[in-house]
Design goal:
The chain is α/β, with parallel strands linked by helices and 464 residues long. It folds into three domains: 180 residues, Aconitase, domain 3 (2-Layer Sandwich); 86 residues, Aconitase, Domain 2 (3-Layer(aba) Sandwich); 161 residues, Aconitase, domain 3. It is built from 16 helices and 19 strands. Helix 3 links the parallel strand 4 and strand 5. The structure holds iron/sulfur cluster.
Length: 464
């Protein structure tokens, strides 16, 4: 057999048959659902007189709309969607994690915690950032509502064939440079559409040295480069993370799984459609200044001038972004004052992220005017953080310690920014209005977020 990339092996392993229009029909090993993208899919199922084919391979969780200050919903629309999810799951026999329950949290955080996502699987969810789960050497796609309905009915997904891109992070990562900085630097380098239609395989010494949390942060933002998915070849870090988790195989099944998982690597000589190399040893913390994740620069730098972009379209986009963000060209990023800091989301709401933020905040106080929300990605993360005393560091610093949920990542719950407010956010999207109408978002790592909360302006821990 010809040499294949990891993504090609995963694709071939799930492929049932060709589908219309050059697509393939893939078998779905795990279907994750949440309240915001599933109601119409269940309605469609009922209208068509179909049933859920594999409720045992489906897991639902409440995350997008849930309040993070208490279990009481103040948003009627959010509550209605959550109640509909509860009805649908009860009707179709789907396991479901309710707001506040042990194990509840953001869908892309809880699935790995439970050991549900394993190398070689195909996983789908009606949320773009399902790409997170590719960190385990799984094919993980975010899909639309009609695909959610199709998967509920058939446990299969018809999807066009992907191209394959290798991203090699070479060199030794300098101290203070985090996985978030690596992925922001990549997107700034290739552009917000630079990986369109591809599955990215992240490789190189800098990736091999990352924890599973760090790999998830990178894969999470693949979609922000336009990619369909991101993958990392499973290795001893992956196996150590999975070992002993509730849904991980055990005993002889574990041994058999390991033998298969170890085969999930790109073959020598396999050809990618595109290869990008980035020398991480030259990187420093990155922040976004504009209104898409590709508009990112080193924190050491300045807001760019539209004139610095080569094409008319990019110049116009930069000008519009400057106006929305109320920034002037050549302003040093460290002079940008911040109103609110958000640490959370499926990008950076894991225990490692909270430990990083706590290490910066320990013994310090937030700048007088800054508000800081710390929102664990799951109730398990919250419990773990409390067992380590991290919540006490946050509270002493003046931050708000919340229940888990998507929170300020998007404007679908109570945690919205006010018009004109500026936020340093560890989430993944900085589009106009993403965190509330008129809100201005700077994407940052947890380390930069925490330092910014103390300084009152964009800052790195070394500035304190
Ligand atoms: S945290 Fe944000 S990106 Fe992640 S699942 Fe929730 S809304 Fe989507």
């Amino acid at each position: 057999m010809a040499a294949r990339t990891l993504a090609a092996k995963l694709w071939d392993g799930s492929r049932i048959q060709p589908a219309a229009g050059g697509a393939d029909l893939l078998y779905v090993d795990l279907h994750l659902i949440h309240e915001a993208s599933s109601p119409q899919a269940f309605d469609g199922l009922r209208l068509a007189g179909r049933r859920v084919r594999r409720p045992d391979l489906t897991l639902a969780v409440e995350d997008h709309n849930v309040p993070t200050t208490s279990l009481v919903f103040s948003d009627e629309m959010g509550l209605a969607q959550v109640e509909q999810l509860r009805v649908n799951c009860a009707e179709w026999g789907i396991e479901h994690l309710r707001h506040g329950a042990a194990g509840q949290g953001i869908v892309h955080v809880i699935a790995p915690e439970l050991g549900l996502v394993q190398p070689g699987m195909t996983v789908i969810c009606g949320d773009s950032h399902t790409a997170t789960l590719g960190a385990f050497g799984a094919l993980a796609f975010g899909v639309g509502t009609s695909d959610v309905e199709h998967v509920l009915a058939t446990q299969t997904l018809a999807i066009p064939r992907s191209r394959h891109m290798a991203v090699d992070f070479d060199g030794i990562t300098p101290p203070g440079v985090t996985p978030k900085d690596l992925i922001l630097a990549l997107i700034a380098h290739i552009g917000a559409n630079g990986a369109r239609g591809h599955v990215i395989e992240y490789r190189g010494a800098a990736v091999e040295q990352l924890s599973m949390e760090g790999r998830m942060t990178m894969c999470n933002m693949s979609i922000e480069a336009g990619a369909r998915a991101g993958v990392v070849a499973p290795d001893s870090t992956t196996f150590a993370y999975l070992s002993g988790r509730p849904f991980a195989p055990r005993g002889a099944d574990w041994d058999a799984a390991l033998a298969y998982w170890r085969s999930l690597r790109t073959d020598d000589g396999a050809v990618f459609d595109r290869t990008v190399r980035l020398d991480v040893s030259a990187l420093s913390p990155f922040v976004t200044w504009g209104t898409h994740p590709g508009q990112a620069v080193p924190l050491d730098g300045c807001v760019p001038s539209p004139d610095s972009y080569p094409s008319e379209a990019e110049r116009a986009a930069a000008q519009r972004a400057l106006e929305y963000m109320a920034l002037a060209p050549r302003t040093p990023l460290r002079e940008v004052a911040i109103d609110t800091v958000f640490v959370g989301s499926c990008t950076n709401g894991r225990i490692e992220d909270l430990r990083t933020a706590a290490a910066v905040l320990r013994g310090r106080k937030l700048a007088g005017s800054v508000r800081m929300l710390i929102v664990p990605g799951s109730m398990t993360v919250r419990q773990q953080a409390e067992a380590e005393g991290l919540h006490e560091i946050f509270i002493r610093a003046g931050a708000e310690w919340r229940l888990s949920g998507c929170s300020m990542c998007l404007g679908l719950n109570d945690d919205r920014m006010r018009r004109g407010e500026r936020v340093a956010s560890t989430s993944n999207r900085n589009y106009e209005g993403r965190q509330g109408p008129g809100a201005r978002t700077h994407l940052v790592s947890p380390a930069v977020a925490a330092a910014t909360a103390v300084a009152g302006h964009l800052a790195a821990p070394g500035d304190l």
